[in-house]
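Quiz preparation item.
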């Protein structure tokens, strides 16, 4: 019985030691800070905002067209048909903006993951998590990732 408790205690202590080694090799980043600091994010936002503004201008024109037709006495059925037609015209442009946003965000995410992965190897860190997942411990490499991305 004494041997079993000694073995159990040894296993427990070794487990604690392994656990503390793993905690020391944990890194984290503030993903939101990295994302918003990245120059490519700002360029993507500008690109999306320009396309969105163009679409918004077109929507405003179409709204004025509908109001004008309404003032000219267009029937409710014809107005509904006009609105449906306009919605169908604008739908591909809205989808284009959504697709562009997803594509650019994916590229940015890939860049951040690559920079983070490269740094984790360089720093000897086994795992990198988002800052929100860390309660205590770990190594903050946020600023290093931002610097790495600036070099791109």
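Solution:
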């Amino acid at each position: 019985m004494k041997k079993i408790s000694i073995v159990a205690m040894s296993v427990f202590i070794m487990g604690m030691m392994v656990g503390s080694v793993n905690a020391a090799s944990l890194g984290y980043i503030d993903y939101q800070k990295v994302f918003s600091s990245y120059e490519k994010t700002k360029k993507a936002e500008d690109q999306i905002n320009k396309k969105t503004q163009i679409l918004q201008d077109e929507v405003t024109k179409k709204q004025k067209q509908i109001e004008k037709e309404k003032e000219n006495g267009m029937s409710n059925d014809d107005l509904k048909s006009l609105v449906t037609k306009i919605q169908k015209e604008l739908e591909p442009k809205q989808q284009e903006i959504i697709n562009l946003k997803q594509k650019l965000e994916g590229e940015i995410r890939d860049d951040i993951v690559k920079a983070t992965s490269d740094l984790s190897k360089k720093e000897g860190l086994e795992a990198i998590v988002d800052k929100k997942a860390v309660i205590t411990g770990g190594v903050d490499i946020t600023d290093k990732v931002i610097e790495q991305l600036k070099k791109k």
